[in-house]
Amino acid sequence: MTPSNANPPNRTEPDMNHNHKPDIRKANVCPPLPKGATALDKGVYWLGIGLGSGLPKRAPGTWGTVGGLIVALPLLQLGFITFFMVTVMASIVGVWICGRTSDLMQVHDDPHIVWDEWAGMWISLLPLSFIITYLPQHLSLSLYGAAIVLAFILFRFFDIAKPNPVKWADSKLSGGLGIMMDDILAGIMALVAWLMIVASVEMFYPL
C-alpha cells in the first residue's frame, strides 16, 4: 500500500528549497500557478508576472519593463505627488508580491517575476513626472518621448549590467527583498544618470 505521506506537498505553501534561477540567456517557460491556489495567490501571481508582461520565454525582464512603462504612462498624468506615492507603495508592497510569487513558482527570483522591473522603471521616471507636473512648458511631445526612451534604456542598462551596489543586492539579499532591491537600486541609478544627462544637455542646448 502507498503510504499516506507519499503525496506531493502542496505547492501553494512556501518552500525554502527553491529551485535555482533559470539561465536568462536561454528561453524559459514561466512556471505555472500551482493547482489549488487561492484567489489571493492568483491575484498576487498575476501582479508578480506584471499582468502577463513577464510571460515571454525570452527577455521577460525587458518585456516586463515595457509593460511597466505602458502602465506608467497614464499614471504620469496624475501628478508628481500621486505618481511618487504609487511608486513608493509599489516598491514596498512589491517585497511581499515578489516573495510570494517566488514561493508559488518554487524558484527564487525567476526572470518571469517582473513586478520589480515595474517598480524600478517607475523610479527612473520620477524626474520626468516632476517636469510634467511643475515645468510642462519645457516639455514638447518630442522631448517627452525622448525622455521616456532615455529612462527605459538607462534602467535596462543598470538592471542588466548590475554595477555595485545593484550586484551586491542581487547576490547577497534573499526573498522578496532580494528580488526587489536590485531593481530599486537600478532605478535610482537610472534616475541619477537621467538627471545628469538632461542637465548636461540643458547646459549646452538650453530649451
Automatic annotation (TrEMBL):
<comment type="pathway">
    <text>Phospholipid metabolism; phosphatidylglycerol biosynthesis; phosphatidylglycerol from CDP-diacylglycerol: step 2/2.</text>
</comment>
<keyword id="KW-1003">Cell membrane</keyword>
<dbReference type="GO" id="GO:0005886">
    <property type="term" value="C:plasma membrane"/>
</dbReference>
<keyword id="KW-0378">Hydrolase</keyword>
<dbReference type="GO" id="GO:0046872">
    <property type="term" value="F:metal ion binding"/>
</dbReference>
<keyword id="KW-1133">Transmembrane helix</keyword>
<comment type="function">
    <text>Lipid phosphatase which dephosphorylates phosphatidylglycerophosphate (PGP) to phosphatidylglycerol (PG).</text>
</comment>
<feature type="compositionally biased region" description="Polar residues">
    <location>
        <begin position="1"/>
        <end position="10"/>
    </location>
</feature>
<feature type="region of interest" description="Disordered">
    <location>
        <begin position="1"/>
        <end position="27"/>
    </location>
</feature>
<dbReference type="Pfam" id="PF04608">
    <property type="entry name" value="PgpA"/>
</dbReference>
<keyword id="KW-0442">Lipid degradation</keyword>
<keyword id="KW-0479">Metal-binding</keyword>
<dbReference type="GO" id="GO:0006655">
    <property type="term" value="P:phosphatidylglycerol biosynthetic process"/>
</dbReference>
<keyword id="KW-0595">Phospholipid degradation</keyword>
<dbReference type="InterPro" id="IPR036681">
    <property type="entry name" value="PgpA-like_sf"/>
</dbReference>
<feature type="transmembrane region" description="Helical">
    <location>
        <begin position="118"/>
        <end position="135"/>
    </location>
</feature>
<keyword id="KW-0812">Transmembrane</keyword>
<keyword id="KW-0997">Cell inner membrane</keyword>
<dbReference type="InterPro" id="IPR026037">
    <property type="entry name" value="PgpA"/>
</dbReference>
<dbReference type="GO" id="GO:0008962">
    <property type="term" value="F:phosphatidylglycerophosphatase activity"/>
</dbReference>
<keyword id="KW-0472">Membrane</keyword>
<protein>
    <recommendedName>
        <fullName>Phosphatidylglycerophosphatase A</fullName>
        <ecNumber>3.1.3.27</ecNumber>
    </recommendedName>
</protein>
<feature type="domain" description="YutG/PgpA">
    <location>
        <begin position="48"/>
        <end position="197"/>
    </location>
</feature>
<feature type="transmembrane region" description="Helical">
    <location>
        <begin position="141"/>
        <end position="158"/>
    </location>
</feature>
<feature type="transmembrane region" description="Helical">
    <location>
        <begin position="75"/>
        <end position="97"/>
    </location>
</feature>
<keyword id="KW-0460">Magnesium</keyword>
<dbReference type="InterPro" id="IPR007686">
    <property type="entry name" value="YutG/PgpA"/>
</dbReference>
<feature type="transmembrane region" description="Helical">
    <location>
        <begin position="179"/>
        <end position="201"/>
    </location>
</feature>
<keyword id="KW-0443">Lipid metabolism</keyword>
<dbReference type="GO" id="GO:0009395">
    <property type="term" value="P:phospholipid catabolic process"/>
</dbReference>
<keyword id="KW-1208">Phospholipid metabolism</keyword>
<feature type="compositionally biased region" description="Basic and acidic residues">
    <location>
        <begin position="12"/>
        <end position="26"/>
    </location>
</feature>
